[in-house]
Amino acid sequence: MVYAADLHLHSHFARGTSGKLTFDNMAAWAKLKGIDLLASPDFTHPAWFEETRRKLRERGDGTYELNGVRFVLGAEINCAGGQGGRNRRVHVLAFAPSLDAAAGINSALEPRGALHADGRPTIRATPRELVHLLLDVDPRCFVIPAHAWTPWFGVYGSKSGFDSLEECFGDAWERVPAIETGLSSDPAMNWRVPELDDRAIVSFSDAHSLPKMGRELTYFRGGLDYDGLLDSLRTQNIAHTVEFFPEEGKYHHSGHRKCGVSLSPAEVSEGNGRCPKCGRALTIGVLQRVHDLGRRDAGARRGDDGFTRSDNGRPPFRSMVALELIIAESLGVGVKTKKVRTAYETLVSMLGSEMSALMEAPIADIEAAAGDRVAEGVDRVRKGRVQVVPGFDGQYGTVRIWGGHSPRGQERSPLPTDH
Ligand SMILES: [Zn+2]
Ligand SMILES: [Zn+2]
Prior knowledge:
Layout lengths: L1 E5 L16 H11 L3 E4 L5 H10 L1 E2 L5 E3 L2 E15 L2 E11 L2 H11 L12 E2 L3 H11 L4 E4 L19 H5 L8 E3 L6 H4 L9 E3 L14 E5 L4 H9 L3 E6 L10 E3 L4 E3 L1 H6 L15 H8 L6 E3 L5 E3 L6 E3 L3 H9 L6 H14 L2 H7 L2 H8 L1 H11 L4 E3 L8 E3 L9 E2 L8
Parallel strand pairs: 1-2, 2-5, 5-7, 9-10, 12-17
Antiparallel strand pairs: 1-11, 3-4, 4-5, 5-6, 6-8, 11-12, 13-14, 15-16, 18-19, 18-20
The site of one zinc ion has 5 residues, from loops.
């Protein structure tokens, strides 16, 4: 079977997240969105762990259930350990096959960090030490480096990351089946890195509020249970992933936000990594890191069906824009308006889910539900006919369907590119 999974989520106990991130709400939104499997996040948080026990029904196959939505136990951990003579801060997603295993992990982590302080706890351990600690509790645990390329907290990040995952994980590298692209990179960028050839490239939302769930997604093939999921990761048995246009992410370009300076790799090397306005060091973005660590071309082609495929059979992906943004721009109104909410609800109820409206429904059906302008908006996004202005230094990039960008806005080239 093929199922949609969002395995990077947070509860309301994680810092900076919405108070509405409860189990009941997450299950309801998963249905609206069309997501089959969610991470039951933040299992390291004592209060949320108790809620997990109380709310979810254990199925005995490593997944849990609430109102027809499946969950797998996950947590995001900030690994804060010195390595190679530097302070490192690396976020990884950790997964456990049972509540007993999760409880065991929590006991092992307790002496290394304040688990109750944040649903995304800071733990005194390197990523390698964390993997060993998890495997000592249960050999079926696994980790996925989160938003792998972001400057802060990304395993490949410019601020405290590594130049290679093998260097980061050492003898635990074999136990890392996948990496998460994060919003600012897409699979084609990751295909450039040889050490990732035998790892799955996955995408999840890292949503801090309900509407953002599923903004990036992975459609897995195989059995929808814990062992099936791990097997699909290990064998890259993935139908496809759904991505942001990577330019939209907050750290795609390098730059200096205070000065409004946003630079491509060629422009970064021209200025020796300094801000051309104030001379300070730039925040080196994701595109630059891929440029530095990528050893070859992506070997990627975008087809007429909107999917980008690799020359050597990696799982394909497609780039999407959130449905409410498409509606808002198509109707020329703000995202938070009643008009957008109404059109969104009509589309979702007539077409089954947000994902089916975005990616599967015939354009004629979208027109019937929400008018020709929204239908054309969806069609343009499906075909990748959008204009982008890359994000940089913490500022989100923008995507426009009908133009209207500043001169820096550019028609997106048909392939993800460096230049
Ligand atoms: Zn994170
Ligand atoms: Zn500056």
